[in-house]
Design goal:
259 residues, globular, 10 helices, single chain, 8-stranded mixed sheet
C-alpha cells in the first residue's frame, strides 16, 4: 500500500469548527461500539460529512459493525509507513463506506499504528470532516490516546449495575485526570431500563460528578440488525436511534451556533 501512503501524506490543514467525539465503554458489553457507529450513521442521515474511526485494536474491526467488512479500502494496518502529516481528503476517498459513513477500521491481527501515525491521521481527518467519531478502547492504545488528546466531546457508556458503576468510577477518574484542556466536555450515557435511569443518574452526578447526558434502554431491534449486517442507527426509530440523535445534538451544539 506504499502508493496509498504516499498519496495521503502532506496535509497541514487545521480543522477549525469541526467536532471530534470519543466514545469509551466503561466496561465490556455496554454497546459502546454500536452506539458510536449509530451516532456516525445518524450524522450521515442528517447530511453531515462524518468518518468513523476504530480505536479498539482487539475488537475485531469496526467495519464489521458498520457492515463494511466486505468493502475494499484502507484500514489502519495499511498506514504504518505514513511519515509526517496526512491529507485527510485523500484518505477519506480511500476508506470503505456504507450509506455515507466512511470507516477507518482495524484489521483482524490486533496490530495498531505508531503514535505519530495515529496523531497525523486523526488531525488530517478532523481537518476535513464536520464530525469524527472514535470508538476508543478503555485499555488505551495509540488511536485512543491520540483521539482523547484532541477530543471536543468524550462520552463514557456505562451499565447501571453496581460493578459497572464501579468500573465507571475508575474510568471517569482516569479520563478526567488525563484531560486538562480547555473546551473538552465529558458526559455519561447510562445503559439500563428507563425506570432506573433517574436514580442511577443522580448517583453518578452527585458521587462521581459527571453529567449524565442520556440513557439507553435495551434495543432488540439492534440485536437483530447486527446479526443481519445492518448498521446501528439505520432504523427510523428505536432506543438506539433516539439516543444517538441526542448525542449527535450534543456534539453539534456549538458547531451550529445553537444557544
Amino acid at each position: 500500500m506504499g502508493s496509498v501512503v504516499g498519496s495521503i501524506a502532506g496535509s497541514d490543514a487545521v480543522g477549525a469548527g469541526h467536532a471530534l467525539l470519543v466514545v469509551v465503554g466503561a466496561s465490556g458489553g455496554v454497546g459502546a461500539s454500536s452506539l458510536a457507529t449509530a451516532v456516525a450513521v445518524r450524522a450521515s442521515r442528517a447530511g453531515t460529512e462524518v468518518v468513523l474511526l476504530d480505536g479498539c485494536p482487539l475488537g475485531g474491526g469496526l467495519d464489521v459493525i458498520l457492515g463494511a467488512e466486505q468493502e475494499s479500502g484502507v484500514r489502519w494496518p495499511d498506514l504504518y509507513r505514513l511519515v509526517g502529516s496526512a491529507d485527510g481528503r485523500a484518505l477519506l476517498v480511500r476508506l470503505p463506506s456504507v450509506d455515507g459513513v466512511r470507516v477507518l477500521s482495524f484489521g483482524r491481527d490486533g496490530s495498531e499504528p505508531a503514535a505519530e501515525v495515529a496523531d497525523a491521521v486523526i488531525a488530517g481527518l478532523v481537518a476535513e470532516c464536520a464530525v469524527v467519531v472514535v470508538d476508543a478502547s478503555v485499555a488505551g492504545g495509540t488511536v485512543a490516546v491520540a483521539a482523547l488528546a484532541v477530543a471536543d466531546r468524550v462520552l463514557v457508556v456505562a451499565g447501571d449495575g453496581m460493578s459497572q458503576l464501579a468500573a465507571l468510577s475508575v474510568v471517569s477518574g482516569l479520563l478526567a485526570a488525563g484531560s486538562g484542556r480547555v473546551g473538552v466536555e465529558m458526559a455519561v450515557c447510562l445503559r439500563g431500563p428507563s425506570a432506573s435511569a433517574g436514580p442511577v443518574a443522580r448517583v453518578v452526578e452527585t458521587e462521581l460528578r459527571w453529567p449524565v447526558l442520556c440513557a439507553l434502554e435495551d434495543d432488540r431491534g439492534l440485536v437483530a440488525d447486527l446479526v443481519h449486517g445492518v448498521a446501528p442507527g439505520s432504523r427510523a426509530s428505536g432506543p438506539t436511534v433516539r439516543t444517538a440523535d441526542e448525542i449527535l445534538g450534543w456534539v453539534l451544539l456549538d458547531r451550529r451556533g445553537a444557544a
